[in-house]
Amino acid sequence: MTTESKIYWGVGIFSVVIILGAFLIPGNRPDKEDLPWHIEHPAPNSVRIFGLTLGQSTPGDAEARFKEEGEPSLFKSPTGALSAELFFEQLNLAGLRSRVVLTAEIPDAELKAMYERGLRMAGTGSGKKITLTPDDIAVLRKSPISSLTYMPGVKVDETLFLKRFGEPSQVIKEEGRDTTHWLYPQHGLDISMGGGEKPLLQYVSPAEFEKLVKPLLKQAAQSTK
Questions:
Q1: In whole angstroms, what is the distance from residue 198 CA to residue 16 CA?
Q2: Where are the domains of the chain?
């Protein structure tokens, strides 16, 4: 990916003025907890982002924090892996429309039981989506958040990420795709971008970062053989 000095918001000059105003106009600065680069570490190997501490805060806490109700679902990947998630289609964070996905920390055995109790199943581009029972939705909302994925509603050039996060510890390019991952293990952060798509920032506990990166490293190793 080529580094350029200009940030391509892709939403027109008027939108750029609004976005910059949210950050730069005195007295109109956003809550710092709404900023994706405001990462705190309340304890070693812990991450607090958007006012939520991974491994402690719950999806229910996130709904209270964002003042929005998320969409709960269970997903089954093509490889059979299950994950329980809460999806926020549209949030206003720091003046930007954004999407947020929370993955709940639920034991595999319980996820399988949720799958068996699922009310409906629908195919998606990346697997299957299962509608949960009300009781299982309640379990999801009370479980700790294991990961948080943030998707800003605008295209952002890598220059902004360099300014806010610094140089990544490692850069991995996906084989066969125009997608590059910038890795910040100290923050449990993986920024993926490229292919003309909007960036995606995924946060996990630094202690869990190896699990997030392992598939990328495996793919990179195979591509060099």
A1: 16
A2: 31-153, 155-225
